């Protein structure tokens, strides 16, 4: 089978490499010629564990190719995936410009039946717009070529993208015809052979599933952050509460960690878009709106704790920051809580010395020299008044507190991810605060 995947971002590139690994012939397309040129040279546009090896092997073995020109492969393609970006508009709704442009390009150049599958996260009701965009172009050409549209949302997590794609909890596919169902089932057969379920449904339900799943996960996080903040005020320990709650199988133990707020390319964007869909349809999503509001507030929490530690005056204070990316194992800085904390610290007159194992280049690209970038975690704490942990990279878990104590001039530690043992910090003479517990 031959497929094309338009958009070589996280989802597009990972999907392309994984389909190729299963023996499918894949063409990855992107309008960004610099990106495609780099991919031709074997340079990955993103950091994702295992991706480079997978891409290089499949290119070498001839199952994976890259091009800027979708039209060049359409005649041999059974399925075209659209995995382009859907950035939020100012009002929080998803911007469909790129998704519809792919549909128009397909309509302008297709010469035989194919299925156009939307893999990007798009609001419910996008599929008819995609269909219409293709049809309008076919009408302009005066040709009548049958095609199908389908929805196939992607649930992979950054940092574990390949494992998630290869061993999915489920594959969700929305279709409108028996022919499209057969093609999609065939395409995913190598994955479902391993026992992973494929759930074929109607298109609006598939579109909705993605938003509902992400919004539910984001809800768990905001809920726990709310509980954590209350725990602090009533003298409870959110870690104990989490374990106590999570032991109930109806609640489950995953995704209940309080912290300094969720970030990334999906949760913030999808929560906003779902809230917007609610308003558009005359049904404001009150839970979802609260989830977002709680998260916005939570992104300030590390800053507020630092402010409190220095009696409301951070002028001239040096803050060491460990971790910048929105979560470990990625260089993705989109909606990272660290950016909010940095902004607030600078506004308050503090100086930031940061270290992140992977995300410093990307941070520099975004905020330039507003902060000092340090060569390792110990350099970051030199002469610092406080250390703030924003991302729980493994290498930050067991630092040498005696070295850090000597290097710092004041001894405050604010832990945005609850990873340290308070006794150990106390024994080393630090004032330690974390989220939702003493
Ligand atoms: C998420 C979904 O998990 C994935 O299914 C979807 O396809 C895309 O969005 P991702 O954005 O890669 O994936 O990140 P994820 O690992 O889910 O973490 C999101 C954010 O939540 C991170 O900022 C993380 O630190 C935070 N988080 C996660 C918590 O604060 N507490 C938790 O218990 C779990």
Automatic annotation (TrEMBL):
<dbReference type="InterPro" id="IPR036291">
    <property type="entry name" value="NAD(P)-bd_dom_sf"/>
</dbReference>
<feature type="binding site">
    <location>
        <position position="158"/>
    </location>
    <ligand>
        <name>NAD(+)</name>
    </ligand>
</feature>
<dbReference type="Pfam" id="PF00984">
    <property type="entry name" value="UDPG_MGDP_dh"/>
</dbReference>
<dbReference type="InterPro" id="IPR014026">
    <property type="entry name" value="UDP-Glc/GDP-Man_DH_dimer"/>
</dbReference>
<feature type="binding site">
    <location>
        <position position="327"/>
    </location>
    <ligand>
        <name>substrate</name>
    </ligand>
</feature>
<dbReference type="InterPro" id="IPR014027">
    <property type="entry name" value="UDP-Glc/GDP-Man_DH_C"/>
</dbReference>
<keyword id="KW-0520">NAD</keyword>
<dbReference type="GO" id="GO:0051287">
    <property type="term" value="F:NAD binding"/>
</dbReference>
<dbReference type="InterPro" id="IPR028357">
    <property type="entry name" value="UDPglc_DH_bac"/>
</dbReference>
<comment type="pathway">
    <text>Nucleotide-sugar biosynthesis; UDP-alpha-D-glucuronate biosynthesis; UDP-alpha-D-glucuronate from UDP-alpha-D-glucose: step 1/1.</text>
</comment>
<dbReference type="Pfam" id="PF03720">
    <property type="entry name" value="UDPG_MGDP_dh_C"/>
</dbReference>
<feature type="domain" description="UDP-glucose/GDP-mannose dehydrogenase C-terminal">
    <location>
        <begin position="320"/>
        <end position="422"/>
    </location>
</feature>
<dbReference type="GO" id="GO:0006065">
    <property type="term" value="P:UDP-glucuronate biosynthetic process"/>
</dbReference>
<feature type="binding site">
    <location>
        <position position="86"/>
    </location>
    <ligand>
        <name>NAD(+)</name>
    </ligand>
</feature>
<feature type="binding site">
    <location>
        <position position="30"/>
    </location>
    <ligand>
        <name>NAD(+)</name>
    </ligand>
</feature>
<feature type="binding site">
    <location>
        <position position="35"/>
    </location>
    <ligand>
        <name>NAD(+)</name>
    </ligand>
</feature>
<feature type="binding site">
    <location>
        <position position="121"/>
    </location>
    <ligand>
        <name>NAD(+)</name>
    </ligand>
</feature>
<feature type="binding site">
    <location>
        <begin position="255"/>
        <end position="259"/>
    </location>
    <ligand>
        <name>substrate</name>
    </ligand>
</feature>
<feature type="binding site">
    <location>
        <begin position="155"/>
        <end position="158"/>
    </location>
    <ligand>
        <name>substrate</name>
    </ligand>
</feature>
<keyword id="KW-0560">Oxidoreductase</keyword>
<feature type="active site" description="Nucleophile">
    <location>
        <position position="266"/>
    </location>
</feature>
<dbReference type="InterPro" id="IPR001732">
    <property type="entry name" value="UDP-Glc/GDP-Man_DH_N"/>
</dbReference>
<comment type="function">
    <text>Catalyzes the conversion of UDP-glucose into UDP-glucuronate, one of the precursors of teichuronic acid.</text>
</comment>
<feature type="binding site">
    <location>
        <position position="269"/>
    </location>
    <ligand>
        <name>NAD(+)</name>
    </ligand>
</feature>
<dbReference type="InterPro" id="IPR008927">
    <property type="entry name" value="6-PGluconate_DH-like_C_sf"/>
</dbReference>
<protein>
    <recommendedName>
        <fullName>UDP-glucose 6-dehydrogenase</fullName>
        <ecNumber>1.1.1.22</ecNumber>
    </recommendedName>
</protein>
<dbReference type="InterPro" id="IPR017476">
    <property type="entry name" value="UDP-Glc/GDP-Man"/>
</dbReference>
<dbReference type="GO" id="GO:0003979">
    <property type="term" value="F:UDP-glucose 6-dehydrogenase activity"/>
</dbReference>
<feature type="binding site">
    <location>
        <position position="334"/>
    </location>
    <ligand>
        <name>NAD(+)</name>
    </ligand>
</feature>
<dbReference type="Pfam" id="PF03721">
    <property type="entry name" value="UDPG_MGDP_dh_N"/>
</dbReference>
<comment type="similarity">
    <text>Belongs to the UDP-glucose/GDP-mannose dehydrogenase family.</text>
</comment>
<dbReference type="InterPro" id="IPR036220">
    <property type="entry name" value="UDP-Glc/GDP-Man_DH_C_sf"/>
</dbReference>
<feature type="binding site">
    <location>
        <position position="210"/>
    </location>
    <ligand>
        <name>substrate</name>
    </ligand>
</feature>
<feature type="binding site">
    <location>
        <position position="263"/>
    </location>
    <ligand>
        <name>substrate</name>
    </ligand>
</feature>
<dbReference type="GO" id="GO:0000271">
    <property type="term" value="P:polysaccharide biosynthetic process"/>
</dbReference>
